[in-house]
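Page 42, continued from yesterday. The earlier attempt failed because a stray header line got pasted into the input along with the sequence. Redoing it now with the clean sequence only.
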Amino acid sequence: CEVDVTGAVSMYALQLASGRPSALADWNNNYGKDPDKCVLFHCGNWPRSLLCEPVLSTAPILGSILGVENTYGALAGRTPAGPVTFARVTTDDRAGRIRSYVAEGRFTDDPLETFGTRAVVEVPGLQKLMRYVCKNGFEHHVAVNASRSARILVEAFETYLGWDVYHHQA
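This time it went through. Structure tokens are written below.
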């Protein structure tokens, strides 16, 4: 699966803020008819500590190009219910600025049958956050961490690094 440099920066910042491993996920589909829930997904590169009962598996999406037999080593598993912090750092090259957003929500126990590493999340005001992400040209990847670390990141990004920060709060 793909990753990007500012996604890795986002993951590392979350890890420093919380003391726990982070993952990079795709903002994916809405979950059912609830406007505040969506699916987070990636092909199997989340840390084991973020999953309950992970299984060593293959990566079917990469397998469609490389051959499934060449993708062994991905994790498959579901994130258990609990707190979640989201973070994304990006560069605004034309303006010479670094921009970011942070938000908090929760991983849920809602049913989800698919492969890879996955979660259902609930974020108050999710549609407002998604509009912000899309209108401001952020990548579809977001760093996630099983913590409540948004305020720490806001302080670090704004106060100490001078970055632009959108702190999503419904």
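Notes: The chain has one domain: 5-164.
Reminder to self: strip header lines before submitting.
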